[in-house]
Amino acid sequence: MPLTDASLDELVTYRPDLPAPPDFDAFWDRTLAEARAAGGAVKADRVTDRHLLRTVEVDDVRFPGWNGEPVAAWLLRPRGAEEPLPVVVTFIGYSGGRGLPTDHLFFSAAGYAQLVVDSRGQGHDTPDRDAGGGTQWAKGFMTRGISSPADYYYRRLMTDCVRAVDAVAELPGLDPDRVIVAGGSQGGGLTIAVAGLTRVAAALPDVPFLCHFRRAAEMCGEGPYQEIAEYLRWHSRHGVEPAFSTLSYFDGVHFARRATAPALFSVGLMDPICPPSTVYAAFNHYGGEDRTMTVWPFADHGGGHGSNSVAQLEWLRERGLAP
What we know:
Radius of gyration: 19 Å
Mean pLDDT: 95
Helix content: 25-40%
């Protein structure tokens, strides 16, 4: 796999001028206020025995997300740990859901609680009931409701993710002052969005997706950004600028500007799915002073794999966020 983008020297200074929509903050303030006003209960049922686990406790969680609709999550905690625990709220990559608790044992093995959030419509346990008016062209989610920010799919999913952080205060054994948001690819883009929309203690966006949409759609030969290019191929006469206008309300670059929590990003310089320049666009605009990029020079979209997880634990420990 060759290098897919600019040189590292060019990337570290890549800071494109991407103005946010004038009503960006008002749009998100209104969206989150409406979701919170919809109410709904946080529920957690103990299901450890179903999964034959002996060192962690597992709760099957439902919390209110977009429009108060229930969103599924797993809550994993090391058995017998002293509480309240720092909690890693984890968002999932594109086309995946929360899966099984046994898919997510790393952070509990390191002593953290972990809330693993299902992705509406992508996982099996959280339907996207309001699939949105407006247009969808390609398979997948990138163009679902793209004709309007109000209808766009990621408005609903990003709202769910913010509400997951809200739910931490109502779940047992967790420290709401030590909430860490994390995820890879789509999960990384959602991590940046949540860090920009609400208060968290730290953010761990790994090879993040959903950043610098226009550049990504123009240069990607693999992955979900191609859904945007395919849509615009058939709507090029009148649809290009309206589509990118909608996407600008969901661009990680704009959320990054508004984020202040310490952040550890990662990037693979041979990533054909999330071009390194799109990752650096968000990183170089990040509002928090404590920001670090872990660079994997020969990595594709897998980034540093398990090595990146170890780097995350070390980084969290250095910032006093170890259990």
